[in-house]
Amino acid sequence: MIKVYLGDLKYNVQGAPNDCISLNLGYVATYAQASLPNELDFKLFKDPDTMMEAVRRDRPQIIGLSNYPWNCNVSTEFIRCVKRGFPTTITVMGGPHY
């Protein structure tokens, strides 16, 4: 089974709003699971620290992150950190900020 981690990351600052996961990430995971049943295992993340702990503990084959004006920098830096530690992990970013 292919392990896929999806994130709609937010900054870890006190009072940071919006702990909701992007609806679009849910759509991506649902569509992919319907298209490739029993081949993909998804986990969704909002907190970058929690996601990085999961990556280190149980490295996924694919990481996908949302890209919005409010999280572009945190998502880009997260991808850089993943690529330094796990260069073979496939990383994808998408969203309206491109």
Q: Can you describe this structure?
A:
- This protein is of the alpha/beta class.
- 38% of the residues lie in helices and 22% in strands.
- The protein contains 3 helices and 4 strands.
- The chain has helices at 23-35, 48-57, 72-85; strands spanning 2-7, 40-45, 62-66, 90-94.
- A 4-stranded parallel sheet has the order 2-1-3-4, sandwiched between helices.
- β3, α3 and β4 form a beta-alpha-beta unit.
- It starts with a strand and ends with a strand.
- The model has no long low-confidence stretch (mean pLDDT 90).
What's the short version?
The chain is of the alpha/beta class and 98 residues long.
Structural class: alpha/beta
Distance between the termini: 30 Å
Element order: H for helix, E for strand: EHEHEHE
Give the strand line-up of the largest sheet. Answer: 2-1-3-4
Instruction: List low-confidence stretches.
Output: none
Helical stretch tally: 3
Strand content: 15-25%
Largest sheet: 4 strands, parallel
Shape: globular
Q: How much helix, percentage-wise, in residues?
A: 25-40%
What is the mean predicted local confidence, pLDDT? 90
Strands, total number: 4
Q: How much is the radius of gyration in Å?
A: 13 Å
